[in-house]
C-alpha cells in the first residue's frame, strides 16, 4: 500500500470536485488517501462575478482537514490542485508551496511522486502554464513529476487533452466540471498511485 495525499485549494468548488474524484480513484487503486485543503488567505482577491459561489463553497469544505507539512512527509505520492490565476497557481497555493521550505530544502520531499491538476474559466486561459508553474516547485523539491502525457484513452476525449495534468474549463460556474475531466483526474490519480508504488518498492529494494 502506498500513501497518497490529494492537496488542493478551491475557490468556487470546481477544483474541490476534481480533488474528490482523484482521492476516490486513488483509494480504489489501493492507496491510503488523505484529502487535504489549502486554506484561504486572509486578504484574498475574488474573481469578479464569483463572489456568491466563493462564499457558498467556503461554507461547505470546512470539514476537509487543512494540509500540514507532516502530510507531505507521510505521502509517497502527492496530487496538487489549484485554480488558474493569470496563468499561475492561485495565491494560497503559492503560499503553501513557500511554506514547504523547512522540509523541501533539507531534501525530505525527494523522490516523492507529484502531479498537478487545475481548473480555469476559459480555454487557452493559462491551464498549461499553471500546471508547469507547479512543476517548477516540484523540481526544487527534488520530487518526481508524473504528467498525464498521452498515456490513456480518456485523455483523448473532446474535453481533455492537456498532457501536463488534468484541467477543466468551467466558465466561472460552480459545479461545472465535465465528466471527461473527472475521468481524466481519476486516471491521473491511478497513474500517480501506480508510479508511487513502483518508486517505493524500488527504493526499498535498493536499501
Question: Secondary-structure element sequence?
Answer: EHEHHEEHHEHEEH
Q: Quick one: how many beta strands?
A: 7
Main beta sheet: strand number and arrangement? 7 strands, mixed
Q: Can you tell me the number of structural domains? A: 1
User: How does the helix and strand content classify structurally?
Assistant: alpha/beta
The helix tally amounts to: 7
Stated plainly, the CATH topology is called Rossmann fold
Helix content: 40-55%
Task: Return the CATH architecture.
Answer: 3-Layer(aba) Sandwich
Description of the molecule:
This protein has 7 helices and 7 strands, in the order E-H-E-H-H-E-E-H-H-E-H-E-E-H. By secondary structure, the chain is α/β, with parallel strands linked by helices. It has one domain: Rossmann fold. Strands 1, 2, 3, 4, 5, 6 and 7 form a 7-stranded mixed beta sheet that branches. The longest helix is centred in the last third of the chain and has 28 residues. The radius of gyration is 16 Å and the shape is globular. It starts with a strand and ends with a helix. The mean pLDDT is 93.
Concise description?
The protein is an alpha/beta fold and 207 residues long.
Supply database-style keywords.
207 residues; alpha/beta; Rossmann fold; seven-stranded mixed beta sheet; 7 strands
Amino acid at each position: 500500500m502506498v500513501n497518497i495525499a490529494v492537496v488542493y485549494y478551491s475557490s468556487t468548488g470546481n477544483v474541490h470536485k476534481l480533488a474528490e474524484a482523484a482521492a476516490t480513484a486513488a483509494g480504489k487503486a489501493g492507496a491510503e488517501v488523505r484529502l487535504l485543503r489549502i486554506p484561504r488567505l486572509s486578504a484574498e482577491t475574488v474573481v469578479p462575478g464569483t463572489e456568491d459561489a466563493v462564499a457558498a463553497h467556503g461554507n461547505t469544505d470546512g470539514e476537509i482537514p487543512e494540509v500540514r507539512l507532516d502530510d507531505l512527509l507521510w505521502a509517497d505520492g502527492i496530487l496538487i490542485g489549484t485554480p488558474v490565476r493569470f496563468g499561475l497557481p492561485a495565491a494560497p497555493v503559492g503560499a503553501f508551496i513557500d511554506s514547504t521550505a523547512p522540509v523541501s530544502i533539507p531534501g525530505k520531499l525527494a523522490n516523492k511522486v507529484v502531479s498537478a491538476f487545475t481548473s480555469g474559466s476559459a480555454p487557452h486561459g493559462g491551464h498549461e502554464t499553471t500546471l508547469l508553474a507547479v512543476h517548477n516547485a516540484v523540481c526544487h523539491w527534488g520530487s518526481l513529476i508524473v504528467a498525464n502525457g498521452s498515456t490513456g484513452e480518456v485523455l483523448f476525449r473532446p474535453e481533455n487533452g492537456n498532457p501536463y495534468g488534468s484541467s477543466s474549463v468551467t466558465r466561472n460556474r460552480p459545479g461545472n466540471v465535465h465528466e471527461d475531466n473527472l475521468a481524466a483526474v481519476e486516471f491521473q490519480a491511478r497513474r500517480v498511485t501506480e508510479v508511487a508504488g513502483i518508486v517505493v518498492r524500488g527504493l526499498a529494494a535498493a536499501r
